[in-house]
Amino acid sequence: MLQNKIQQYTEEINRLAPSSSVEVEEFRLKYLVAKGLVKSLFEEFKTVSSEEKKTLGKVLNEFKQLAESKYAEWQTVFSDNSGVGLQREEGDLTLPGEGVELGSRHPISLVRKEVVAIFRKLGFVVSEGPEIEDDWHNFSALNFPPEHPARDMQDTFFVEKREGNDMALRTHTSSVQVRMMEMGKPPFRAVMPGRVYRNEAISARAHCFFHQIEGLYVDENVSFADLKQTLFYFVQELYGEGTKVRFRPSYFPFTEPSAEMDISCSICKGKGCNLCKQSGWVEILGCGMVDPNVLENCGIDSEKYSGFAFGMGIERITNLKYEIKDLRLFSENDVRFLSQFETELV
User: With b meaning 16 or more CB within 10 Å and e meaning fewer, what string describes 1-24?
Assistant: First the structure.
């Protein structure tokens, strides 16, 4: 009968005196889990007569409360954090310890930190912004005309189409520059690191997402000479003294004049190799003077203020520093690849 079972199990619980957390767990598995004895008794209770339910219901509930209270009491006694218990289990302190593998930072994180640290020495602060941007901050404010190919679906991941203001994954961190200039007053001196997205085929030389660090300096009487000297200092700090630099004319919608900056190949020291395509030079960034239209779009008087901007892909910088030839390695989380940077952990 059900009443006899309840009495039997009650006496059994009252006799128990577990001496370890293992025995407490065995008690839980026997009595309190979904298929334990308490549950089975309640299932059996459904089959008894209505007259018996009046008396057995109270007895069964008291039994359940007893089992739960005993488990809670023993769990506290043998808890790993309680520090109490008459016969608490201890590990064998004479055994040798288990080795802990040393982790490592990602090479992208290492280079980003190093680049930011160099510009901090020049007074640049770090500024960040959202990765989902509207058309104004990602394109229009930066002087991109409506027909510019960068707006096409082939180059941009659009998130939401809105009339007159599409939402998209940002294609560059220049949008952070716009937000900074809109919200404050010159002078500005900041770098903007972050992840960006472009709708490109993934290969050893290209990816649909990558990382950039852009920089902005706006103040009175800022010149192209200031830009060149800033970037020259950056290159000498990152790649070592004696690294050669050259500027080539280029075009960007948001700077005028614009240029691309090359450095002498750090792999072959300018002699020519596969990385530099036998030229001895490697392009590392684009730069230029901030277009007056961009300043005006952000509410800054272009007659009074001028500025320069630059932008570089962190993957490109990392490739040169560590001689990595496949961009896909950066996002595959292969431990064999990442473990090579354990000695770079700082």
Answer: eeeeebeebeeebeeeebeebeeb
